[in-house]
Amino acid sequence: MRKKISMGIVLMLVVNMLLGAMVPVAGAAAGGNPIVITMLPTDGTKGVPVDTKLIQLAFDRNVKLSDGEIEVSVDKGAAVVTQTITPQPYVIRGYDVTIPSNTLVNGTTYHVKIKAGTFVEASTGLNPNEEFDMSFTTLSAQGSITQPVISVRTPELGKIVSGDSTNLKVTFDKTVVKNTGSVSVIRASDNQIVSKKSVEDPSITIDSIDNKTASWTVTGLIPGERYYVLIDSGAFKDIDDHLFAGINSAQEWYFNVKGNPVVWDVTVPTVPAANVTGIATTGSISLNFSRPVYPDKGIIFLETEGKLVKGFDVTSSDVKGGGTNKITLTLPTNMSYNKTYTVTVLDGSFKDSDNNAPLKKVWSFTTGTTTSTVLTLSSLSPTDRSTNNDITTSIVATFNRNIAIQNASGVTLKKQGTTTAIPASFITSGKQLIIRPSANLQEGTTYYVDITNGAITDLATGELFVGLSGTSSWTFQTKVSDTTVPVIQSATMYSNSVIRLQYNKTLDSSINLLTSSFNVTVNGETRSLSNAYVSGESVYVTLVTGVAVGQVVRITYTGNSVRPIQDLSKNIAASLSSKEVTNGIDTVLPKPTDGYVSGSTLTLTFSESLKSLSNSSYAYDQFSVETDGYSKGISSIYQSGRTVTLYLSSSVSNGEIVKVSYSPGSYPLQDYRGQNISAFNDYFVRNAYDTKPPELTGIEGNSNKVILTYNEALKTSTIPMKSQFSVLVNNSPVYVTNVEIVSNQVFLTLASSFTADQGVTLSYISGVGGIADLNGNLAGYINLQPINYSLVTEGIRSATVRGDTITVVYNKTLKAISDLSISQFGVLVNQSNRGIQTATVSGDTVTLKLSSPVTSGQVVLLSYKIGATPLNDNQGNVIKAYSNMSVQNLSGTATTTDGVVQPDYVKSMSSGDFGKGGYLLNSDAAQSSESRSRSGQSIRKYTLDHAKVLGGLKFTSNNNVSKMLVFEVPSTENAAEVDIPLSALMEVYSMGKSTSFAVRYKDVMYDLPMDKMAYTEIARALGTSSLSYVYMKVQMESIPRARLTTATSYNGVTTNPLADPIELHITAHNGSTSSGVGEIAHTGQLYFRASSTVASTKQVSLVKYNVASGTPSYVPSSVIGSPTAMLFSGKVTGNSVIGPAIGYSFYSDTMKHWANEAISELSEKLIVESRSSSGGKFEPDKSITRAEFAVFIAKGLGLSGEETSRFPDVTSGTTGAYIGAAAKAGIITGNSDGTFKPNSNVTREQMALMMVRAMEYAGPSISLNGTSAQTLARFKDASKVQSKDLVAKAVKEGIIQGITINTFQPQGNATRAQAAVMLKRVLDKLKYL
């Protein structure tokens, strides 16, 4: 027992004295051992809290109190506690010394002293204690109870040092001293220790001034190598004996030693070497460098005959050897004999530790043959996929040996799109097969040659040729004889001294035009000309003296045969006679021609010099700058000549897309004549710090036009080669004949047209001179990306007609025109002219009112020419003319089976964008008003009309195929905000109709089923009995991925966003005043289009970003499309920040494991994870616990963590929250005693029950084909299964199998690998992957 000195003891002492029960102190018995006393805190302890109340003494045997004294005193100072001990009859084994409050002070050493004989042995009264003196030291400062941590490392993480030695320093957050342990410096390339010192080594010193910094020198460093530092746990400690945790990871502190830039190894750069033959079809490729390299980014291409065999992502497990001089790639299993393979390693695929990259390398090698008689093709003429071939061209296939025709019918020449062979003769000449068509080929037509297996043989050996599929291996196109002359589209003042003549096709820029071919008059006076030249589709004529705004300018051109204006086919343009040149403010005045930003300095260059600013101190207020859609402050402005410099309040970061706008105010920019220059909006400027490639946001097209749209402006000084693009129409190639870049779009012209019902894909090979942003970052590869069929005319987004109204929507905001001339437009309806009554411009839309309505089925064509009041975008650029553009006719929609007529304000929406069709509400179904997004951006709110929403929903819900009604927020908005009248939704829901309402904003659409809305709960939350004036507010806003604060790496899995996520926020409010706002519990389907370059779509998914906890979590989702352009579809519950992401996982113990594929996919999607104690291993063959499997299931179903007190043995935290969520969903149940037993291994039967419940929670109920007994009959241990129905369902669905063909082992434990595979089966069946 343990005693404290108290009033009770005092009373007992008095009583014992009266009774004469005092025990005299006895000396030690002869040969007896003195009592041994120990103390808590132990002798010499440091860091004892000053609020310690007890000092606990313990004895090695039972003792009694005798005569003596216990004293607690300051080291070499006075006593602070003194307790006198007198004899007592009771027996004790411990004794507590009470310390009064506020007795101990920080940073002080105290001694606990006990006089000899104070305690004696209880059984004998002998063997007293000896003199006792032990000490402890209190905390150095109040609150100093944490371990020391490193605040500064020198050199910093990843920094580059020079020389063969360097000084290493670590600065802690508090005073430290040396303890025990070692510090090691290790070379990363081979993990060799180059320096290991005990911290007690004198060369490791601690700064005598701050007592926080330890330093030492490491020598023997090799240039070009990376080194990392490890420090043993406890090597340093603070003065309270709190131990430093140490550094035990190679990623925690490493530095690089500067070396010569890496180059390919001079002696043996590659294995196989270039141009060698006889290489085996199995094995590996080695890349050898002059110094260690590390994978950075990109794909290594292995190709043969122009076809991709395999692309090796340099960051994938297929590429090994990072951190060494040798990179190894394992050859794929689909290698063929006797083929030449080309390997392409792009710039920047690997980098050394100094961030230097070796140059691009391309080389070829040839595999060996199984026999020397293999018959192969050597060459084709015309070559595969060649263009501009003559219609009388010879068609020749050359083989590696002399040949004979075995089966002439097996060789056919066909025209693309047909299966009928073209009449031709086939002869052989030595190694050549010669095909001679009976008539000339057609112009502008694609042909292909098929050779069946065995049609051609080796003349000497009879070896059969394996054949050739022309559609994939030998197609070619004949040239087109262009006989149409170029037609002028517009004549405008490009600047005050340059006239621009724009034609409808590309002109021959090799012609040096004569100024004598032109005559220019200004207000009737002839002007001298200094130059005339061709560029693209335009002719530029330069005047010696400039013109003023508003002067009448006319130009005459006289064609001649010496240096005419002509197209690339030598068709000569017609002469011009006194053609009026548009000379307005927007065309003549200076405009920005270039811009770039470096750090916090943004520079704009104008087309000509500007007048000095009258008050530069305030002129910057007229400009606004956006980075990634967010406003950037401007602190000052400077103007000189043609340049305007804006000084921003903060620097622009890597990858940010920068746009600048200008609106004239009190201190406008002026040209040198004093004319105010025009406003401009969203002018892209080059980000000098940008190293991120432009991202593809969409591909659309129709007829023979295709537009690729990127997220930022593209470089126009270099145009990709036509051969870098591949377009397949129903898997047959269609050649690209022209490439043009305007702003952030690439325009392709095809050799032939395609239709809406054809499958069209586009591929693009990135490379030098290809698509790049303004800073030269090359766009990524595109692989078989589907092309969305839609209207494609340069600058136009859509053109539709309904009744008497044609609506043309442009990609940019147009300048307002008060009196837009109808004479500039022409409308053909079934090839007959249709009158136009009015033409108006509003925002990005031109609206034409016709003299009479268009009816269903009529073909409508629209033309626009530049006239007296031309269309201009908001930057003053003249909108191009167009001729006979197809207009989508939405007039006279037929009724549905239930007789509900399609309203005029509803039009069909293609399923091309989101894989799901529907109907769009027109923009006139909403009223817009000024608002602010949740992040404070200026936007317009769209409030939908009750009657039109109701009418649209009634139509969609009565259609044969239930479809959704969609409202699309204009893409020009910075964020989406839509108010939807809930009463309209409620009315349709009350009618028992099945439909949904969706809001689309840019590449995101959120679809809310009517039957998932909690109408009653919304009314109750807002305190109203009626939904008549209640609106549901849907807000969507892009969140820049750079601003995410969530962790990207956890337990061996790294997660990176593929695109900026979207914040989805839904609330309800009463009326237009937004009173009584409340969040809505909602469940819907989120569709997200994203473009990227990833190795496999199995790595990607939608994730939810929990900003509060800093962790992403999996959203049950599927993805379709190619690895470069994907459509995500996921189930969303509640307000969230959601976006597509890619996961990378690596477990050293699963690389060759049978379940590696399932483990990798579920890990990369944040569903399964390694144990925190596993050291980066998954431990696939260890048993899985009940808690682990419950967490995996909850994550796979996308359940949000929910703390529960249901199970007394489940503690709070992340695991407990997921267990609570699974319990709430009915997926897990406890044991009969009310516990969950989270750390017990889950049995196979328990696992089967959980998986069946999970499937029935997320999907339809599972039914058996027969009885459970019949399903389980094949298992001889079926009688041991307790929950036979549920286990039978799991077996029937193929989720779980027997251990053997006739044993199930219901009480057997499952491994973590087995759990991952079975969980993947469940999620696959639910379409949650």
Automatic annotation (TrEMBL):
Presence of keyword Signal: yes
One protein family per Pfam: SLH
SLH domain location: 1142-1201, 1202-1265, 1270-1329
Entry superkingdom: Bacteria
Protein's UniProt keywords contain Ion transport: no
PROSITE patterns: SLH (PS51272)
Signal peptide range: 1-28
Sorted UniProt keywords: Signal
PANTHER family cross-referenced by the UniProt entry: OUTER MEMBRANE PROTEIN ALPHA-RELATED, S-LAYER PROTEIN _ PEPTIDOGLYCAN ENDO-BETA-N-ACETYLGLUCOSAMINIDASE
Alphabetical list of NCBIfam families matching this protein: swm_rep_I (TIGR02059)
Name the record gives this protein: SLH domain-containing protein
Taxonomic lineage: Bacteria, Bacillati, Bacillota, Bacilli, Bacillales
